[in-house]
Specification:
191 residues, alpha+beta, two-stranded antiparallel sheet, globular
């Protein structure tokens, strides 16, 4: 084996190692072409939080919407698709929490990924989802989390504190108790 071949093998091995570290906590679900998380939770101490990206685009009805519309509130951002089984499983918990936390200055915002508005609207009707979603079919908003808490899993939920900083991320399906715990922890830790 030549030095050049050895160097190439080393580069490939290092890339594989880096890639495996980047997707820790997620699993490929097989033939359906997406990666599902395992519920891994990351919570960031207030002094170490990074600013959340401004999420913007059109909602499922074609109207412009931005995360800036909800400044000063805790924002729960959920990356989802109507075709995603874990998204279907967690939808009732998200809607319940959204309804019950609305009076506590907590806003929910969906990021629709790899999907179209028509099936997404049917999904929302089926589960009674009444909070807005941004059509993020191109993945721009999801990618904007690269500087704070990136994700490669669907679903992923981020909690953004009232100061506009990313406080937490759950990669994978979440429960009502987990979501409420993260929101409460975020509210208590944010001055």
């Amino acid at each position: 084996m030549t030095n050049r071949q050895s160097a190439r093998l080393l580069v490939v091995a290092l890339m594989a190692l880096v890639l495996s570290a980047c997707v820790g906590g997620v699993k490929d679900t097989g033939d359906d072409g997406f990666i599902s998380g395992n519920g891994e939770i990351t919570f960031i101490d207030p002094g170490k939080r990074k600013p959340a990206p401004e999420l913007k685009g059109t909602d499922l009805d074609g109207n412009e919407i931005s995360s800036a519309d909800f400044a000063g509130q805790v924002l729960v951002v959920n990356l989802w698709g109507s075709w995603c089984a874990p998204c279907r499983a967690e939808a009732p918990a998200l809607q319940k929490a959204s309804s019950e936390l609305a009076d506590e200055k907590v806003q929910f915002l969906g990021l629709l990924t790899k999907d179209n508005p028509a099936p997404a609207k049917a999904f929302n009707a089926e589960f009674g989802i009444d909070y807005p979603s941004i059509d993020d079919s191109a993945g721009r908003n999801q990618a904007a989390f690269a500087d704070s808490l990136p994700s490669v899993a669907i679903p992923t939920t981020w909690v953004i504190d009232k100061n506009g900083k990313v406080a937490a991320r759950v990669m994978g399906e979440l429960t009502d108790a987990t979501l409420r715990g993260l929101v409460e922890q975020t509210k208590k830790s944010t001055s």
